[in-house]
Design a protein that fits this description.
The structure is a homodimer of 219-residue chains.
Chain A lengths: L4 H16 L6 H8 L3 H13 L3 E3 L5 E3 L1 H23 L8 H8 L7 H8 L35 E7 L4 H10 L6 E8 L4 E6 L2 E5 L1 H4 L2 E5 L1
Antiparallel strand pairs in A: 1-2, 3-4, 3-7, 4-5, 5-6
Chain B binds a DNA duplex (30 and 30 nucleotides) through helix 3.
Amino acid sequence: MMLSQTEENYLKAIYSLTYTNSNNVSTTLISEAVKTKASSVTDMIQKLAEKDLVHYKKYQGVSLTEIGQKIAVEIVRKHRLWEVFLLNKLHYNWDEVHELAEQLEHIKSETLIDKLEIFLEFPTHDPHGDPVPDKEGNIKHHNDTMLSSVETGKSCVVIGIKDSSDPFLKFLDKLQIQLGNTLKVISKEPFDNSMLVETTIGSISISNQISKNIFVKNL
Amino acid sequence: MMLSQTEENYLKAIYSLTYTNSNNVSTTLISEAVKTKASSVTDMIQKLAEKDLVHYKKYQGVSLTEIGQKIAVEIVRKHRLWEVFLLNKLHYNWDEVHELAEQLEHIKSETLIDKLEIFLEFPTHDPHGDPVPDKEGNIKHHNDTMLSSVETGKSCVVIGIKDSSDPFLKFLDKLQIQLGNTLKVISKEPFDNSMLVETTIGSISISNQISKNIFVKNL
DNA sequence: AAAATAATTTAGACAAGCCTAAAAATATAA
DNA sequence: TTATATTTTTAGGCTTGTCTAAATTATTTT
């Protein structure tokens, strides 16, 4: 099925709204996500329903069909792999990759994204800590180990972040904390739960508010 | 100036037709290049003329303005850098890169293509031997040294090919001759002008018809 | 130089995706 | 439970880029 960029964006929006909200997503919510008016959403929803990509009953909201869901996950896969490429290979900052990936995710090719995945050596997570779906659309949700819970003296690898807000991303750029970096917890301060961490650029003190928002893999 | 993908494609088509044909390009020629009808071309040309991207007088054909030319060269730059990426990094075959680059060249970003250029270490030519325009739009046309004119005993580096036909590209893939490869001319056969060439995979015999179509840089 | 042919432009129409304004349905409050 | 407010849908219209068919201009042929 050959979908337009717009149609793909609607599917992606419905997909993520289904997780963060109810099962049946309202037209208003979608309209905010894709930045149009609710009436335009109704039009598009009806088109997608004709193509069996969404379930739709008037006034009852929308949900993805199995095919619709499959396509949405494919787009998510593309988005996340492109984000990894932009960050790891082109050295974009953490906070700059999303917008560009929004464009790149719509490139049409049977083979491109699989070749990109090989080139990137099968990353498991994107720069925001979200898992990269595999070729078949399976998603491994990670086990939520945060930097804050790493024991003193132990090392770990940064695999993602929880808070994707712009200020937080910029802050991490400043600390030069990047995906794949190894961090070693030197000591913890019981008073405010801050920790002294050994990074690639030396030892830095990290507040609990920060360490609670960094996903890591224990070594 | 924010142009649509379609507008960009028209500019690119006019650009390349200007070189391979007359200075004033006809609507019919453009219609073949962008795969539409001549009447559609007229519509679009008038729109581009309004935006000062082309010079246009009814029934007299089209040529690019300075701005139009500048934009066209930017697209060519993007196209060629993406081709290098696809070939060198994702290991696509020579004959597969063009189509995908047609999509990637339209990604909108102020910084992406310059970062890609750095990542690719400033390639001077694309896989078809065409020069990559620099940031300012300057193009260095190369000096047309063909493999066939390399002296016996001398080495050279493959920088491009002249014939971009599908069979030829597939043939090169089979011989494993790639951009950047070093070739050494071991001997030449005066009878049919074929040559024995040392490649990365060993010595192979190359006919004059082939060696006439491979651009090289002498070492 | 007039007639025939070919190329180009205009006119009117269509699909995709969006909009505004009004109508219909649902949800909330009195 | 009726009245009010909110959400959703419909109706009609706009723009972009395309098309066909007809009209106009340019080019060739005789």
